[in-house]
Amino acid sequence: MATIIRTTLVKFSPQGGKIAGCTLVQNRTIMGKTMRESLGPRPPKPPPFDYENKCYGWLRSLVDRTTHRFDENSKVLVVEGPVAVGKTQFAATLAEDLGMKHFPEANMDIHYIRPNGIDLRMFDKDIPEDTRTFDHVNFNLSPNHRLAGNYQIMMYIARYSQYIDALTHLLNTGQGVVLERSPYSDFIFLEAMFAQKYVSKGIKSVYYELRANTIEDLMRPHLVIYLDMAVDKVQESIKKRALKHEIEGKALTKPFLTELEHQYKNKYLRDIATHAELLVYDWSGGGDVEVVVEDIERLNFDQYTEREEPKMKDWRLPREVDWADKRMIYTNNKNYLMNLFNIPRYDVPELITDAEDGYERDKVIFDHPDFQYAEGYSRNDSGQLFKNKVPKYTECI
User: pLDDT tens-digit profile of 42-51?
Assistant: First the structure.
């Protein structure tokens, strides 16, 4: 049974209150399945907007208001914790109980699995070493590899991309989301890698420059749940789940895991608690999701009404048009946000690929038959002037 660690970061609040000066008045608390069922049928909400295939522009915003789909569970929850603590199972179970969408932890698939379904890792044996893919398996086995720094930067980009997808889903459907880790906590890995000399000072400089240029465009979570486990227990859990690359690898040493814990507790949790509610649990022996749901139901997210109050500030938008603006950015202009990562840095050798090696890589990949056609097309579309299904517009009215 998990026990809650009561610290100055964990705060329970009485029910009541609402967002001042906002067209949206959310009910006071997130509700679990049992509480929702006890209230009986709810008033119908507008159907989810098909954001994957349709554009949400200014004209549509006049008739499709964002907050009309919101209810008390329209929140962003993030589950954090050390390696092998059990975040995935917990987050999936929590999302099901709360009626939210679960986003498993972001990984390098977003970079390596192309829209045509081809995994770029299949080409590694045929391309120069410095141009090969590098994911969590490679990092665990070779944490001092030249590509380790680039890997961590790409992981931040992956978490950032997934977080935009989560915000897009919430704003277009009203359904809350539960994520495993987020771009806000990603820096703990960079700091632990730097402390163990897995990455250079140059990599750290580039990472924080990219982070500073991108992180402010997101909306911080409503609630962070940290599953705590002592480092010795973490090592036992890693052995128990018996993943070869973790057991035989050189990355997950006790000093590395200890530094992760330090970064979590002394930097990330203290910082995020200035905006989000925070619940911390001792998860050494596992825990009961129902207990966590009951604790969440006691939280009042709408008590922070003062304009200067930093808590929930990102979610106190005063007008419906402000909600529409946020929704349009995440729904239609994700490409703009991702382009914020295009900051040229030529002073870090680990991030520079030799031109000849890059040419050899591209030649091998694009000579593959599945890369002979533009995205969305195949040999079956030969001779067609138009496609029946076209991608969603990135620019719309």
Answer: 888 899 999 9
Task: Give the distance, in angstroms, between the CA of residue 235 and the centroid of all CA atoms in the same chain.
Answer: 25
Q: Residue 146, class by beta-carbon neighbours within 10 Å (0-12 exposed, 13-18 middle, 19+ buried)? A: middle
The rounded distance, in Å, linking the Cα atoms of 123 and 120 is 6
Q: How far apart are CA 371 and CA 130, in angstroms?
A: 22
Q: What is the pLDDT of residue 14?
A: 34
What mean pLDDT do residues 112-134 have? Answer: 95
Kindly report, residue by residue over 14-61, the tens digit of the pLDDT.
333 333 334 444 445 899 999 999 988 888 889 999 999 999 999 999
Among 122-126, 133-137, 322-326, 384-388, which stretch is predicted with the lowest mean pLDDT?
384-388
Nearest to 396 by CA among 342, 329, 343: 329
pTM for this one?
0.90
At residue 241, what are phi and psi to the nearest 5 degrees? -80, -10
DSSP for 115-173, please give it.
Answer: TTS-BGGGGGGGS-GGGS---HHHHHH-TTSTTHHHHHHHHHHHHHHHHHHHHHHHHHH
Structural tokens at position 342: 């295009």
Within a 13 Å sphere around the CA of 204, how many CA atoms are in the beta-carbon half? 14
- Distance (Å, whole) CA 228 – CA 80: 9
Q: Collapse the DSSP code of 314 into the 3-class scheme (helix H, G, I; strand E, B; otherwise coil) and give the result.
A: helix
Q: What's at 131, amino acid-wise?
A: T
Best CA proximity match to 293, nearest among 181, 162, 185, 176 = 176
Instruction: Note whether 19 and 305 are within 8 A (CB).
Output: yes
Integer Cα distance of 31 and 71 in angstroms:
10
CA distance from start to end of the chain: 53
Buried b / exposed e across 4-32, counting CB within 10 Å, b at 16+? eeeeebbeebeeebebeebbbebebbbbb
Q: What is the mean pLDDT of residues 305-310?
A: 89
Q: What is the phi/psi pair of residue 213, to 5°?
A: -85, -10
CB 166 within 8 A of CB 178: no
CA–CA gap between residue 315 and residue 308 (Å, rounded): 13
